[in-house]
Amino acid sequence: MNGVTFREKDGSLIASLTGELDHCLAVSVRERIDAEFYKRMPKELLLDLSGVSFMDSSGLGLIMGRYSVCGNCGKGFALIGADERAVRILSLAGLDKTVAIRKE
Amino acid sequence: MKNKPINEMKLYISAVPENEALARACVSRFVSTADPTVSELADIRCAVSEAVTNCVVHAYRDKPGEIYINAKLYAGRKVTLTVADKGCGIADIGLAMTPLYTTDRENERSGMGFAIMQSFSDKMKVSSKPGAGTRVFMEKYLR
Question: Which CATH class is domain B7-141?
Fold first, then answer.
C-alpha cells in the first residue's frame, strides 16, 4: 500500500518498498519509515527493495538517510532484495562499500 | 552538414514530482522504437529521471515551472536527449557536477544526479545561466 509496507522478523523491522523509487516515492515514504522505526525501535532496519522496479539517485538519498538515522540510534541497517541494477547505482556512490547488502 | 533525426519527440510538462514517472515512460516508449537492450533502456530511463528531478527539485524549487524534453533518434542508433528548464540556473556547473555534492542535504538529495547521467550516457553537456535556466544534453549509442 502506498509504496511501503512493514513487518517484523526476529527483532528486525523490514520496510518493503514497492513501485518506482524516484524522488516522488522517496519523499512520500521517508517519514513513514522513520515514524515506524522510532515507534518500534528494532535492533535493525532492513530496507527491502525486491518490489522496486526502478531506482535513481533519489533512492540513494533515501537509503543514505535511513542508514544515517539507524547509525545515529546505534541500530543496524541493511538492504535486502536489491537487484543488479540497484547495486550498480549504489556502487556509483560507493554505498555498496558502506551499506550492508544482503540476499534476504 | 548536420544529420537529421529519423524520429523525434518534444514534450512539455509541468515541473511536478508526479511527472518524473511520466517523463521516464514517454522517453522510454520513444526509445523503445529503436529496439534497445534492457540495460540501455534502463540507463536512459534513469538518466531522464535524474534530469527531470533536478528541474523539479533544484531549478524551480517546488514552484510552478515547465520542463522541456526533446528526444531524437538518429541513423547509426544514436539517441540524444535534451532536458531544459527556465528555473534558477546553476552558478558553478563544475561544483554541481561533483559526485555527492548537493545544495539540498536537508531533503536527502544524494548529490549523484549528474554522476548518474554522465555514467549512463556516452556524452553529456550541461549549460546554464543563473536566473535563466539550465539545459542538459545527453547522447547515447545503442548497440
Answer: alpha beta
